């Protein structure tokens, strides 16, 4: 039986919030089966819980924020992506401020924290959201879709006419039954144009952004001295984001995701559209014969082992 997972013991991290610019302490704590992923704000006098669910998404301006009972947690997508990649179903994430720390701008530091402390299997079967028919949403020329597929595959097309972007791949397709999330996707960092930084900061975004937590790009070059981690790092980061946004469905997807110019807003629109259409998906449980072998391989367990 493929079991649900949590972490073996608490683990801690301290970094800045990429948008608030504030230092934030984060503690990841084990949680029992069927808890799901829960964020807890510890800075509000008494702990306040915000569940990591698509219906709780409240803001998608340059990141994904969730809100429940008036309490917000911002920039959840990279951590959620890492949790999918390692097959973590249940976790309590304590934060000393409103934003998940940005770390290095990718999911890799979260992966390293969890792999360092260890993963524990729980006495309950893992469940999946299996796509049974295609759902597609669009907005302003961008599209995002989920289609039936025996496993999990993610494809993304990044459209940006810029001297730097034009030198690198703009499309990627990853079948996670055969490709390790940890090795091939988790290290892809967020990125941005220096010319757009002032505009973002004018709306109180990217106040903590630096070359330590993002790829900076000017008119002609990448500003980070180390360059890119993958040749297709830009488009792979879009896949990383989409995985994190889709994991807000509460369970890993069995299906194929296709994004064309989509971002956090359209990813969430897709998740909400799916939840509204009852005949487009079903919940299936590992061990009952309804979960294909390719889906088990792509469910985070393969990524953690490779």
Commentary on this structure:
By secondary structure, this protein is α+β, with helices and mostly antiparallel strands. The chain folds into 2 domains: 3-125, Ribosomal Protein S5, domain 2 (2-Layer Sandwich); 128-305, lpxc deacetylase, domain 1 (2-Layer Sandwich). Helices cover 23% and strands 31% of the residues. It contains 8 helices and 19 strands. It has helices at 77-85, 108-117, 181-184, 194-202, 233-246, 264-276, 293-297, 301-305, and strands at residues 3-7, 11-16, 23-29, 37-41, 48-51, 57-59, 65-68, 71-73, 91-95, 119-125, 127-131, 135-139, 142-147, 152-157, 171-175, 191-193, 215-217, 253-260, 281-285. Strands 11, 12, 13, 14, 15, 18 and 19 form a 7-stranded mixed sheet that branches. A 5-stranded mixed sheet has the order 2-3-9-4-5, with helices on one face.
Features:
single chain; 306 residues; alpha+beta; Ribosomal Protein S5, domain 2; lpxc deacetylase, domain 1; 2 domains; seven-stranded mixed beta sheet; five-stranded mixed beta sheet; 19 strands; 23% helix; globular; disordered C terminus
N→C terminal distance: 20 Å
Low-confidence stretches: 302-306
Q: Enumerate how many helices there are, as a single number.
A: 8
Highest-level CATH class of the largest domain: Alpha Beta
Helix content: 10-25%
Q: Mind describing the biggest β-sheet?
A: 7 strands, mixed
- The third-level CATH topology of the largest domain is lpxc deacetylase, domain 1
Q: What is the residue-mean pLDDT, rounded to a whole number?
A: 94
| Radius of gyration, taken over Cα atoms and rounded to an integer in Å | 18 Å
CATH architecture title of the largest domain: 2-Layer Sandwich
User: How many strand units?
Assistant: 19
**CATH level 4 superfamily of the largest domain:** lpxc deacetylase, domain 2
- Write down the domain tally: 2
What is the string of helix and strand elements? EEEEEEEEHEHEEEEEEHEHEHEHEHH
Estimate the global geometry from the Cα principal axes: globular
Strand content: 25-35%
User: What structural class results from the helix and strand content?
Assistant: alpha+beta
């Amino acid at each position: 039986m493929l079991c649900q997972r949590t972490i073996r013991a608490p683990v801690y991290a301290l970094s800045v919030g990429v948008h608030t610019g504030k230092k934030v302490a984060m503690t990841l704590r084990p949680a029992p089966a069927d808890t799901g992923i829960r964020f807890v704000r510890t800075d509000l006098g008494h702990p306040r819980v915000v569940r990591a669910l698509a219906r709780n998404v409240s803001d998608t301006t340059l990141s994904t924020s969730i809100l429940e009972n008036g309490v917000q947690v911002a920039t959840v997508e990279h951590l959620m992506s890492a949790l999918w990649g390692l097959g973590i179903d249940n976790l309590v994430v304590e934060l000393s401020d409103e934003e998940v720390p940005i770390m290095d701008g990718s999911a890799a530091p979260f992966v390293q924290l969890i792999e360092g402390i260890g993963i524990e299997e729980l006495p309950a079967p893992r469940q999946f959201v299996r796509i049974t028919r295609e759902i597609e949403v669009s907005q302003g020329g961008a599209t995002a879709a989920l289609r039936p597929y025996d496993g999990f595959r993610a494809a993304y097309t990044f459209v940006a006419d810029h001297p730097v972007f034009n030198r690198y791949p703009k499309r990627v397709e990853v079948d996670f039954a055969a490709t390790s999330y940890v090795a091939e996707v988790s290290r892809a960092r967020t990125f941005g144009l220096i010319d757009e930084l002032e505009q973002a900061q004018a709306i109180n975004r990217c106040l903590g952004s630096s070359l330590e937590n993002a790829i900076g790009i000017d008119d002609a070059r990448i500003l980070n001295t180390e360059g890119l981690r993958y040749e297709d790092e830009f488009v792979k980061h879009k896949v990383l984001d989409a995985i994190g946004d889709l994991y807000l469905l509460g369970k890993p997807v069995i299906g194929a995701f296709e994004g064309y110019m989509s971002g956090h807003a359209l990813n969430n629109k897709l998740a909400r559209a799916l939840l509204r259409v009852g005949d487009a998906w079903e919940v299936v449980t590992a061990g009952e014969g309804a979960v294909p072998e390719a889906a088990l391989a792509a469910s985070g367990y393969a990524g953690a082992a490779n």
